[in-house]
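Lab notebook, design round three. We kept the backbone fixed and only want residue identities now. Task for the bench partner: fill in a sequence for the structure below.
Input structure tokens:
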């Protein structure tokens, strides 16, 4: 339902590499009544790339503490993390515990990203040069998503090439 954005980002972090296989597990754990409609609210995906890199993406539609989008990249030169559920760095330390204000919606947490995205879209319309990300970038994320759907349906690892036939 939402991981295609994560797949796009994972591809961006691994430039030039192509996803070769995925293994995805998903279920309706938050709202089991939606399982029969295919609305699966919890997922975990393992991705293998042609350069040997491995990636994991997870999603759940019920982070009760706020809208939570985070990531990390770990490699031989170190690690980079991104994302924070907190709206500010302000934290309250009180007798009843520690707390911080969190974003309750994606528009709250990522307002500037959405603004920048809209501005880039408007520039792409005005300027006929190829936008970033490209259509090919979008297709590669979609290939991973389609392989994930098949993996969940068939409960097995799926080669990305299978969805390109």
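Proposed sequence:
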């Amino acid at each position: 339902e939402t991981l295609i954005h994560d797949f796009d980002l994972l591809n961006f972090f691994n430039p030039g590499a192509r996803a070769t296989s995925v293994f995805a597990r998903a279920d309706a754990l938050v709202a089991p009544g939606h399982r029969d409609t295919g609305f699966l609210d919890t997922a975990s995906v393992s991705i293998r790339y042609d350069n040997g890199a491995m990636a994991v993406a997870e999603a759940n539609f019920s982070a009760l503490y706020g809208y939570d989008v985070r990531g990390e990249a770990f490699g031989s030169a170190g690690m980079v993390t991104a994302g924070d559920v907190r709206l500010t760095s302000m934290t309250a330390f009180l007798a009843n515990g520690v707390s911080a204000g969190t974003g309750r919606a994606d528009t709250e947490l990522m307002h500037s990203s959405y603004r920048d995205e809209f501005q880039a879209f408007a520039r792409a319309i005005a300027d006929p040069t190829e936008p970033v990300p490209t259509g090919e970038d979008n297709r590669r994320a979609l290939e991973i998503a389609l392989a994930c759907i098949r993996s969940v349906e068939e409960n097995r690892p799926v080669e990305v090439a299978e969805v390109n036939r």
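Keep this in mind before ordering anything: The helical segments are 4-13, 106-109, 111-126, 135-154.
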